[in-house]
From TrEMBL:
PANTHER family: MHC CLASS I-RELATED, UL16-BINDING PROTEIN 1
Species for this entry: Neovison vison (American mink)
Keywords annotated in UniProt: Disulfide bond, Glycoprotein, Membrane, Signal
InterPro entries: MHC_class-I_related (IPR050208), MHC_I-like_Ag-recog (IPR011161), MHC_I-like_Ag-recog_sf (IPR037055), MHC_I/II-like_Ag-recog (IPR011162)
Every MHC class I-like antigen recognition-like domain range: 44-203
Transmembrane segments: none
Keyword Kinase set for record: no
GO cellular component, one term: external side of plasma membrane
UniProt record, GO biological process: antigen processing and presentation of endogenous peptide antigen via MHC class I via ER pathway, TAP-independent; antigen processing and presentation of endogenous peptide antigen via MHC class Ib; immune response; positive regulation of T cell mediated cytotoxicity
Lineage, opening ranks: Eukaryota, Metazoa, Chordata, Craniata, Vertebrata
Signal sequence bounds: 1-34
Locations listed in the record: Membrane
Family annotation (Pfam families): MHC_I
Name of protein: MHC class I-like antigen recognition-like domain-containing protein
Amino acid sequence: MSFPGRTGWTGASSVRLGLLFWFFLPVCAPAGRSRPLSLNQNFSITSQARTGQPWCEIQGQVNGNKFLYYVCGNKQVIPIGPCGMKLKDTAFWDTQRETLEDLGEELRKKLLDIKAEIFTKSDSLSMQGSLMCERGADGHTRGSWRFAFNERLTCLFEAENRKWTVDPPGGQQFRVMLDNDGELTKLLVRTANGDCKSWLQHIWEHCDEVQETTVPPATRQGTAPGKATAIGPCTWIFPLLLSCVVIMDILVGDH
């Protein structure tokens, strides 16, 4: 490539092209990859509630932001924040109440069993549980459960490999009890690998703030997570870079 008064492509031109490339490189990140998305359903359950206090409360969070609040036994799930308001009129909202109600009942039964077998000297036993599912930028979703009892004994259940981890390690009796409970294992696996992943999909479709790019509503529906189609910036950025370098070369050469 040559221009009047120029002998060809110079070393200075190459340097300028390189600098512009590194300046615009962040713009050319691969399009269509999903931002990490996480959903937490946090349970607080007690074996013996005080008068006027609920025995079970559940708070939902998306990427750390609250979007629902539910008291077990109530007929209504309370939406919180922009995401909760967008989801409350969808079929997803009804499934939340039914599933969370069932989970609260089953976890309280297990709490009472644990109290009778392990925490026999405790007047009351509390459980803080969290159902977590996270989808990474690679599109893979992982589900798990975390529990804490009386803020002393904590345990993690990985749904993919059905493995319990108990802290402190001395809680071996507790771990054996959990490992031998086939019904509890099925419940935790089903909700972490089934329900929670389905909820993530609904949240991605209805809550704009968790999506990677701003897509018109008419084109967003029916698009799978992480596969939104858009014109990639790199389809036009390199011709622009080349034009900039040519102009700069001409201007510098004229002086």
